[in-house]
Amino acid sequence: MRRKEAHMIRSLACLLGLTVVAVVAPTVAAADSGSPNYRSKLVAVTPQTKGLVVRVVDGDDALELRNATGANVMVPGYEGEPYLRFLRSGRVEVNVNSPARYLNEERYGGVIVPKSASAKSTPRWQLVAQGGRYVWHEHRIHWMSTIEPPRVKASGGKTLMKVFDWNVPVKVGADRVKVKGTLWWVPSGQLEQADALIAAAWAKQARQAKPRPSAPAEHFSATRGSTPSCGD
Prior knowledge:
Layout: H1 2-24, E1 38-46, E2 52-57, E3 62-67, E4 73-76, E5 82-86, E6 92-95, H2 99-103, E7 125-129, E8 133-137, H3 150-154, E9 161-172, E10 175-185, H4 194-209, H5 217-223
Antiparallel strand pairs: 1-10, 2-3, 3-8, 4-5, 4-9, 5-6, 6-7, 9-10
């Protein structure tokens, strides 16, 4: 019996050891999954950069970046400090002295950041992925509270609406690139049609944003200072 128990303990210790390795070297940054009532939609990457691919993962939870630009790509943290770097060799590294490294472990940033991590600390890079691809939780693309946005709360959560526009800066070589998107609130009864509804709302917003055509200049010169009568 003792021999059997000792074998079980060794097996458990081995399993725990493997688990620790998985946590130390993740391929995806740890965080909670996205909220079902929010959708973060990528709008544009400006300027368009060949070989740079970005997409939103899990509704509003994370960003995935793939670097095939032939240059090094840098993603800053929330204080502008070096946070992630995608080397042209395919290595992806995280700066363990970046506060973002720890804040991104929990959806609302409810973690204790080590004193060694600050925007002024010298970067210390740690390998997190190979192949030029990495997914990380990104606070800039979601609502940072368990309480609904004021406008959503006022509507009772029953209306599709834009929460805010967002921007995640990226540096490709020496060039500055903006990853832009929009966060939307989607009512519970409309989740299955979320993509179609958001696309329609975008189209309506674009139509309303177009300037109205002005009247010809000769019209203003002909009628200026006079009021035509009904018989004219």
